[in-house]
């Protein structure tokens, strides 16, 4: 059996509407996911037992120190899930090359899980009569994490429920982004818990989130300025409370000409929308010179989800 390599994108959340805390510890969301051109790559190769190696992708300065190489790695859990479903033994070596910031709010672990699901299905399933259809992979993905189904789907999509129920959005054209990474990640459960704490201290109820018509219209029109005005993230106050320095990063991006600025998902990566590719390159340079971020990265979206290469 030949090795199978899968390329999988990071995400930024264009709208992250967070509802009240549910009894199961999750929140109902209106989560507009957007896949961007920062990619991890996962290669699956037959081996005598499940093994994981993690390295920075060539040319990437991503800090891989905190990424587990045992069963704590979401890609390992994905491989075990596919093996279980196909009645196979999880005898696979997974080599993960990371360019997506770790614990950065860009769903890097979820991306690797999605890539591992696809790679292992390709390795072990019968191509003539596949036991795992794309919908089955989406369902397995939802068991691994709320962001995993979107990493399989890619593009731009609205996630409801925990974020795992996806509807593709209509998008025209390409949007150009700058991402400012931070040293040290933020824990997703801690950011949701801080969001609940801030809301409880404020008092009053928490409304169910609603999809932004202005955002969906901006996407359909390919209008970067209108999209910038419609970007929202209900987790941003919590991320800023836990990491106050992010306020200065967002302000610097706006001062240096970003059309729009927000924290990506649970943070601490900050995302800036530019008018075009040249604008993004210029903004990244200016942010580098300002020295407010650990690293700046440029990317465009939407891009496809997990893809065998
Ligand atoms: C912040 C986002 O990245 C935005 O896309 C996601 O909502 C988080 O997705 P994820 O990292 O795949 O999260 P999961 O692994 O499913 O859940 C981790 C933890 O995040 C919190 N969580 C996650 C999703 C959700 N809809 N409500 C939550 O409250 C819960 O505390 C949960 O225990
Ligand atoms: N393949 C993986 N890559 C990165 N982190 C992983 C992986 N598998 C497990 N983890 C663990 O998950 C934690 C969160 O990492 P991840 O990069 O997925 O965060 P994130 O991008 O903030 O996630 P999200 O945006 O989905 O909330 C890491 O600190 C690490 O302990």
From TrEMBL:
* InterPro entries on file: GHMP_kinase_C_dom, GHMP_kinase_C_sf, GHMP_kinase_N_dom, IspE, Ribosomal_Su5_D2-typ_SF, Ribsml_uS5_D2-typ_fold_subgr
Keyword check for Cytoplasm: no
GO: which molecular function terms?
4-(cytidine 5'-diphospho)-2-C-methyl-D-erythritol kinase activity
**Protein's pathway:** Isoprenoid biosynthesis; isopentenyl diphosphate biosynthesis via DXP pathway; isopentenyl diphosphate from 1-deoxy-D-xylulose 5-phosphate: step 3/6
| Reaction(s) catalysed by this chain's protein | 4-CDP-2-C-methyl-D-erythritol + ATP = 4-CDP-2-C-methyl-D-erythritol 2-phosphate + ADP + H(+)
Q: Show the PANTHER family listed in the entry.
A: 4-DIPHOSPHOCYTIDYL-2-C-METHYL-D-ERYTHRITOL KINASE, CHLOROPLASTIC
Job description of the protein: Catalyzes the phosphorylation of the position 2 hydroxy group of 4-diphosphocytidyl-2C-methyl-D-erythritol.
Could you tell me which HAMAP family the record lists for this protein?
IspE
Its protein name is 4-diphosphocytidyl-2-C-methyl-D-erythritol kinase
Question: Which organism's genome codes for this protein?
Answer: Actinomadura sediminis
